[in-house]
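In the design runs reported in the main text, the only information available to the sequence generator was the tokenized backbone. The following block is the verbatim input for one such run; it is reproduced so that readers can re-run the procedure and compare outputs position by position.
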């Protein structure tokens, strides 16, 4: 289980993308948490976790990087599951990465915590998206 409580920031590359190819990189105080290649993917994630951009400023010599701080009122807690029966009632399916592969994950906001449920890669619930579907998905949602 991983818990992300505070100090979330978004680094947005406005001009040239770095080698990793992500336009938006979301970091917590200790490491990179997630990343998106598209604005639509970032917005969908922010809506899911009820995050709002608090402040923005440009960084770098060429003003090509924007740093935003997120006001995320929910603590984010990640869980691995072995079987769908372990998921709480009301958990909502969405596509996200688990062990480097895009697959069906679930989330539930209980008012104070945003729970993310990812399938354990050693379980039968772990069913990565086929390559063509993954490519199409990432073009739109990043």
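Verbatim output:
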């Amino acid at each position: 289980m991983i818990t992300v409580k505070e100090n979330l920031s978004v680094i947005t590359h406005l001009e040239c993308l770095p080698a990793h190819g992500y336009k938006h990189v979301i970091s917590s105080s200790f490491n990179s948490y997630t990343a998106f290649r598209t604005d639509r993917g970032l917005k969908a994630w922010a809506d899911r976790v009820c995050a709002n951009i608090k402040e923005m400023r440009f960084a770098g010599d060429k003003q090509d990087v924007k740093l935003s701080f997120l006001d995320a009122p929910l603590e984010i807690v990640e869980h691995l599951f072995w079987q769908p029966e372990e998921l709480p009632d009301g958990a909502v399916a969405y596509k996200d990465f688990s062990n480097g592969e895009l697959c069906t994950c679930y989330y539930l906001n209980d008012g104070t915590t945003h729970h993310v449920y990812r399938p354990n890669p050693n379980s039968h619930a772990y069913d990565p998206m086929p390559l063509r579907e993954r490519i199409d998905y990432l073009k739109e949602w990043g």
